[in-house]
Specification:
By secondary structure, this protein is mainly β. Helices cover 9% and strands 35% of the residues.
């Protein structure tokens, strides 16, 4: 997966394109999505496709409960296809928690240019969208206890 991508299409267009029912309160689209940002993903729930909100970045099960804010907790955006299935971090999610990350384009950088030059790579067909493969992991934030008053 790339380090940045574009997800600027409105939710209704993504829903129509992927045949997914949209959840309420989906985040707005962004044209330069960094890791840890809220994005829209397509998942299977109860035998139907749903367009849902998710935070971009994978957190393995052993970090599933944390007092840290989601943006500060460790997360990954890449997995090696050759080893992911056997990985303790990715294996279970790769088998049972797959999703599609709709995108208008992803960015690759020319690191030889000064300053570095981004290039947007998108679908060949006008009006098309990219379907980036993703996996997800449930995250439960630990509840902080309020100090007694």
């Amino acid at each position: 997966m790339c380090g940045r991508f574009s997800q600027g299409e409105p939710s209704h267009r993504i829903s129509d394109y992927f045949g997914a029912y949209p959840d309420d309160d989906l985040p707005d689209g962004l044209y330069n999505v960094p890791p840890t940002e809220m994005i829209r993903v397509v998942v299977e729930r109860a035998d139907e496709r749903r367009l849902v909100a998710a935070r971009w970045g994978f957190r393995p099960f052993w970090t599933a409960s944390t007092d840290e804010a989601p943006k500060q907790a460790q997360s990954w955006i890449n997995a090696r296809a050759e080893t992911a299935l056997d990985s303790p971090a990715f294996g279970r999610s790769l088998r049972i928690r797959r999703c599609v990350i709709p995108a208008d384009a992803f960015y690759e950088w020319d690191r030889n240019a000064t300053p570095r030059q981004p290039y947007a790579i998108g679908p060949a067909a006008e009006g098309g969208m990219l379907a980036l493969a993703g996996i997800w992991s449930p995250v439960c934030m630990a509840r902080r206890r309020r100090p007694p008053s």
